[in-house]
Amino acid sequence: MGHFSSLVFIMILVGAAGGVINYYTLSTKRASDFNLLIRFVMLGIFVTFLVPFVLSVFGSTLIVDSEGDPANLLNYVAICLAVAISPRFFMSNMSDDVMAEARLTSDKVDLLQYQLRQLQEELLPLIDTETEDDALAEAIPVADAAPEELDNTSSKVLKTLGCGRFIYRSLSGLCREADTDESTMVKTLGFLTLKSLAGKVGGRKGVRWYITERGRRLIEIGA
Question: In the chain, what are the domains?
Answer without folding.
Answer: 2-84 (no CATH), 121-222 (1.10.10.10)
